[in-house]
Design goal:
Layout lengths: L8 E6 L6 E7 L2 E4 L1 H7 L4 H13 L5 H4 E7 L5 E8 H11 L2 H20 L5 H5 L7 H12 L2 H15 L7 H20 L3 H8 L31 H23 L6 H14 L13 H46 L6
Antiparallel strand pairs: 1-2, 2-3, 3-5, 4-5
């Protein structure tokens, strides 16, 4: 199953006879196909699919408006056409009426693998992962899980949940929770880079470098919100190390929480230091030399410089492209006006 553009994901389904591969569009918690794709999926004619859908709607088995939508589809000629798409309910309803081996195979796959993916967001082939052989992607899976678990939003939520359950003096106010999270996060970043998050960002953010020296960011280009995230400046080795350390710390904290040991919030800071020391990492003992507010002020100023230069470069590129288009148009006009040579 592969990720797709913002309008949805694409899931590749291969028929068991190997004669067809269908790309199902995932949007709004279901999958969508055209009538032609449904015909290919069930190895039947387009006319049969159209007839089955007509009967399904006339019998009021399904409400047409709830299973049908129109969407722009790019055809082989590169042009976009408005096309009717049918969701999984309609696809399965046609499959029951076609009564072909492919229909049975798809229904079995849809009620197991596809259903799990739509509900959970993932599907694992457990037996295959437990029996390594040939191409083994287990280590890649572990790295991807670490990266997801160590993402700021998930880490923040997990830290809050853990310490809420295991701390006798837990303060659930947003500001206190954020401050505590920042303390833990700073210790982990410092353990990997020797810098607090704020120090790392100020040290590496460079408006003169491509993408302001960021290595990762959300979206197609660097935005203002991206430049104040410390993980966005880490190289691949540092990112792998931080992800591993973060997931280890969460396992350590979960183990303590599961034993219901009476722990105060200040004790968790001590435990974090013990965890890092045990793993032979540098331990941050103060708040560092750079405050978060000062870092934001400095880096946002650098971003303004970077963004202004980026806009200027984009304007120059647009002017050059317009000039090239104009030159091409003028050349075409001259060619059309040139009289034919006498034979």
């Amino acid at each position: 199953m592969s990720g797709g553009p913002s309008r949805g994901e694409l899931i590749l389904y291969r028929t068991e006879d190997g004669r067809a591969a269908i790309r199902l569009r995932v949007v709004d918690g279901t999958v969508w196909l055209t009538q032609g794709e449904i015909a290919t999926l069930f190895d039947t004619s387009l006319q049969n699919v159209s007839l089955h859908l007509k009967n399904i709607f006339s019998d009021r088995e399904l409400d047409r408006n709830s299973v049908l939508k129109e969407s722009l589809i790019t055809a082989a000629d590169g042009k976009a056409y408005t096309t009717a798409l049918y969701n999984l309910d309609a696809i399965l309803a046609v499959g029951y009426r076609v009564r072909s081996p492919r229909g049975t195979q798809f229904r079995r796959w849809a009620t197991t693998v596809l259903h799990e993916y739509l509900v959970k967001g993932f599907v694992l082939d457990d037996p295959r992962l437990k029996e390594p052989g040939g191409l083994d992607y287990f280590d890649e899976l572990i790295r991807r899980i670490r990266d997801i678990r160590a993402s700021e939003k998930r880490f923040y939520q997990k830290v809050r949940d853990l310490f809420k359950a295991a701390s006798v003096d837990y303060d659930g106010t947003a500001e206190t929770a954020k401050a505590f999270f920042a303390t833990i996060q700073n210790k982990l970043v410092y353990a990997v880079t020797g810098r607090t998050a704020a120090e790392l960002i100020v040290e590496r953010a460079d408006p003169g470098k491509p993408n302001m020296a960021l290595t990762t960011w959300d979206g197609e280009k660097v935005r203002k919100a991206d430049v104040t995230v410390s993980k966005n400046y880490l190289d691949a080795g540092e990112m792998e190390s931080l992800n591993r350390l973060t997931t280890m710390f969460l396992d350590f904290a979960e183990e303590r929480a599961s034993r219901r040991q009476e722990t105060r919030m200040a004790d968790w800071i001590v435990q974090a230091d013990r965890f890092l020391a045990f793993n032979e990492r540098e331990v941050l003992v103060d708040k560092g030399r750079m405050s978060h507010d000062r870092m934001v002020e400095i880096v946002h100023g650098r971003f303004e410089t970077f963004d202004a230069e980026r806009r200027a470069a984009e304007a120059i590129a647009a002017d050059e492209e317009a000039a090239e288009d104009l030159a091409k148009l003028e050349a075409d006009v001259r060619r059309l006006k040139k009289p034919d040579r006498p034979t």
